Amino acid sequence: MVKLCFAMLVASCLFAESSVAVRNGNLFVLTDEIDMSFEGFNVRSLRNTLTGEIYVSKPGPGWMDLSLQDPTSEFLRPGTWQLNTDPDTGLPAASIVATDSVRKVTLTVGVASGGKEVFFRLEASANRTGVRGLLWGMQGFDPAGRFVLPGQAGIYFDSRSPRSRLALEYPTHWEAQFAVYEAAKGSLLVYAQDPKPVFKRVQTSRELGTLDIGLEVFATAPWPAASNIPVIEWRLKAVAGNWRKAADEYRRWSDNVWAQRVITPGLEWVRTIQSVIVVVDAQDNYLTLLAEKLNPKKTLLYLVNWRKDSYDVNYPDYTPASGTADFVRKAKAMGFRTMLHSSALGVAQYHPAYQDLKKYQLRNPEDEQLIFWPFGLWPGGSPPPEYLPSFAFISPAASAYRKMYLEAVAPAIETVQPDALHLDAGGVLLNDSNGSIEGLNSIEGMVQLHKDLAARFPDLAFSYESMTEPVAGLQQLAQRWNSDHESHPISTYLMGDRVRFYGFLDQENPDEP
After folding, report:
1. Is the backbone peptide bond immediately before 195 cis, with ω within 30 degrees of 0?
2. Do the beta carbons of residue 85 and residue 91 sit within 8 Å?
3. What pairs with residue 179 in β-bridges?
4. pLDDT tens across 461-499, in order?
5. Phi, psi at residue 123, to the nearest 5°?
6. How many CB atoms lie within 10 A of CB 302?
C-alpha cells in the first residue's frame, strides 16, 4: 500500500503543472511553459510562464474558415468545449466542433507528452467536394513584439511593417513550417509536426491593432475531388530568450525528420567558397582576369550558358557546347570550382521527351490549368507561342521524369566533370492538380530527385533556386531571390551551416548603380 501511494504521488507530481480544464464554457490549458485559454475557437489569453510575459490578453473576433471552391453563404457555428482523452498521449484533452449544413471543423487541444508543449489538431470536412483549405488563426498578440518567419530568406513582421498583411506559402516562400513570436524576454514557437509534408500557408496581420497569425492547410489536390483537409498537429512551445532559442527548439525536431545527405570528402570544398561568379560566355581570358582579383580556390564559377542550346532552350538536351569541357578543365587546373546550370523540372514542349511526360505536367490546383514557363505571362493554360524560349514544368513525383532527367544530365556531368550542378526552378513545388503520383506529391518527388542524383554522383555538390527545409539537408548551395520584406537572419541561422547562399541570377551586380 505504501509503494502504491508513493507511485501515485510521483505521477501526480510529474503532471502537477499540466492541466486541461473547462470552466464557464471556456477552455484552460496549463503546461510547464504556457498558460492559455480559449473562448470558442479563439485564443482568449496566452502567457509565457517562463518569463511571466503576457502575449495575448483578449480574444479577437475570430479567424477561422473552411474555404470551398463553390463558397457557401453560411457561417460555421461553434459548439461547446468537451473534455476527452487524447488517443496519442493518453492525457486529458478537449475538443470543440463548428458546423453548418455543408462544413464541419473540429479543434482538439491538449498537452503534449512531456508536459511542456500545447498541441492543437484541426480536422475539417465537407459533405460535398471542392474543399480548398482550412484557415485557423490566433489573434491579439501584443504589438510590442514581432513575428519572425523563415520565409523569403528570412523576414519579420511587426506593428510598423509597411504591409498590413502578409501571406507565404509552404514550401516555396515559407521555407520551414514554423513561426516565432518574439517579445522582450521570451518567445513563442508555433510549428507543425508534419513530416509528410503537405501544402500550407502562414498569414500575419496588424489590421486590428494587434499582431495576428493565421495557419492554413490546403486540401490535397485535385480540389474538385477534395472533401477534407489533411490532419496536421501544430505545437506551441514557449522559451526564455529570443528567436534563436525558438529556432533551436524547432531544429531539434526537424533534424530528425528531413533527409540528410552524407557529406563525402569530395564535398568539403563547398565550405571554403567565398564568391560565386556567373559565367555567361565561357572564354579563357575570363579565368586569367578573375584569378588576378579572386582566390580561385575560394571561387565557384557558375556556367549558365554552357550547353549547345541557349539558356533555357530545348530542355532536357544537356549536350555541352564545343568549348565547355576545355573551359572547365582549364578553370579547375587554376584552382577554380565549376558548376553547370540545369532545370530541375523543365521539358520544352517541342522536345521529343515532352510527349511521353506531358501527362505529368504540373497543374494549377485552383483551375487545373497546365503550368509553363514563363509563368509570369502564362500562370496556366495554353502553351506560350513558339517564338519564346519556353518549357513545361513536369512533376518530380513521377519516376519516369526523374529517370529521364538523370539520364539526360549524366553524360554531360561525366564528360565535363563539374564540381556542382544547379537545379533551377526548384521553387515550383505546387499542390499539383494531377494529385499524388506513385504515392508522392511534388515536394516528396523533389526530395527523391535529390536522393537519386546523390546516389549516382556522391561527390557532386547540388545548388537550388531558393531553399526549403525538405531539401535543405540534401543541398550544399542555394540562390536567394530579391525580397521587399524586412529581412531577418532566421533562415540563414536555420540552414546556413549546411547551405552556402548566393544571389539569384536577376540580382544586380554590387558595382551597378
Report:
1. no
2. yes
3. 190
4. 999 999 999 999 999 999 998 777 889 999 999 999 999
5. -115, 140
6. 23
3-class DSSP state of 294: coil
Give the residue from 201, 259, 192 showing the smallest Cα distance to 231.
192
Radius of gyration of the chain (CA): 25
Asked whether the whole model's pTM tops 0.90, one would answer yes
Q: What are the two backbone dihedrals, phi and then psi, of residue 173, each rounded to the nearest 5 degrees?
A: -105, -30
- Spatial separation of the C-alpha atoms in residues 261 and 458, rounded to whole Å: 9
Instruction: Tell me the average pLDDT across 201-225.
Output: 98
The predicted pLDDT at position 1 comes to 41
Residue 437 pairs with which residues in a beta bridge?
Answer: 440
Nearest to 391 by CA among 381, 382, 399, 383: 383
pLDDT band, very low/low/confident/very high, at 511 (cuts 50, 70, 90)? low
In sequence order, the β-bridge partners of residue 225 are none
Grid cell 545548388 is found at 463
Q: Which residue, chain included where needed, has cell 522582450? A: 184
Domains, the chain, with CATH or none = 18-254 (2.70.98.10), 265-345+396-503 (3.20.20.80)
Cis peptide before 222, with omega less than 30 degrees from 0? yes
The answer to whether residue 33 scores a pLDDT higher than 80 is: yes
Identify which of 21, 30, 28, 70 has the alpha carbon closest to the alpha carbon of residue 49: 30
CA 71 – CA 304 distance, rounded (Å) = 46
The alpha-helical segments, DSSP class H, found in 417-476 are 442-456, 469-472
Distances (CA, A) of 442 to 431, 454, 455, 469: 7, 18, 20, 14
Please check whether residue 80 is in contact with residue 96, taking contact to mean a CB–CB distance below 8 angstroms: yes
Q: Are strands 337-343 and 420-424 parallel, antiparallel or unpaired?
A: parallel
**Average pLDDT score, the chain:** 93
